Amino acid sequence: MTASLRGRTILMSGGSRGIGLAIAVAAGREGANVALLAKTDQPDPRLPGTVHTAVAEIEEAGGKAVAIVGDVREPADVERAATTAAETFGGIDIVVNNASALNTSGTAELPIKRYDLMQQINSRGTFLLTQTALPHLRKSDAARILTLSPPLSLDPKWLGRFPAYMLSKYGMSLLTLGFAEEFRADGIAANCLWPETTIATAAVINLLGGDEAASRSRTPEIMADAAVAVLKRGPEVTGRTFLDVDVLAEEGVTDLSRYGGGDEPEMDFFVERDR
């Protein structure tokens, strides 16, 4: 089954830039409404875009959008975002858990406030946004939850490489797979989506290797195209953790050259090249 996103309302955490923005713009191109809860109200010289420029891009693509300046860690901000989305567009059909904090420091080096930040934004933010939107999702006839989080691998390589970040991202995945089963009877589908390769975002450029890392990364549009494809699938597609390339292959897209990254792009965390 394939659903349409036209007229459907997405509540997304983050989305001022990067993968979240690419997904929001692609959904807008499909006729979706997008409510963005993000902190970036004013331009930051280190980062492109604000929640307001994101809204403008979504509307230019053909969608409708509203900006909610706030923090996914704050219950009052999340409640305001859900209320704004529902009052502006008549409900909430889709939650996209996009906001995420990245720190790959080891256990000895990671300050506890950075540990807390990752857990609060990543796994706690996923729980809070989903929980707050749940009454609206239950009223939708095409409810979806999509979380940008990785496949679960107990390979010691991933468990031990950066345990704090691993815990926060695996927490997002475990919650989403739990939502899929918990809300199956309500017809709410819940899935995870993760890139096979690194994606050329500000996080990669600023934290993981600059322009050289970006040159070996695919563009955010690959995640956007995969996300739209997952969101258009029927409610029977639930409880799965997808890689972007696998989703696109199922859609008949195997030539990925337009997404960049070169002949051998860098594999993302939690993904093996010989999988």
Describe the structure in your own words.
There is one protein chain. With 275 residues, this protein is of the alpha/beta class. It has a single domain, classed as 3-Layer(aba) Sandwich (Rossmann fold), CATH 3.40.50. It is 43% helix and 13% strand. It contains ten helices and seven strands. It has helices at 18-29, 51-60, 75-89, 112-137, 156-161, 163-182, 202-207, 210-215, 221-231, 244-250; strands at residues 9-13, 33-38, 64-69, 94-97, 144-147, 189-194, 240-243. Strands 3-2-1-4-5-6-7 form a seven-stranded parallel beta sheet, with helices on both faces. β2, α2 and β3 form a beta-alpha-beta unit. α1 crosses α9. The radius of gyration is 17 Å and the shape is globular.
User: Any idea of the CATH class?
Assistant: Alpha Beta
* Helix content range: 40-55%
By secondary-structure content and strand pairing, the structural class works out as alpha/beta
Secondary-structure element order, N to C: EHEHEHEHEHHEHHHEH
The overall strand count is: 7
The CATH architecture is 3-Layer(aba) Sandwich
| Termini Cα gap | 28 Å
Question: Major beta sheet, specifics?
Answer: 7 strands, parallel
Number of domains: 1
Q: CATH topology, anyone?
A: Rossmann fold
Mean pLDDT: 94
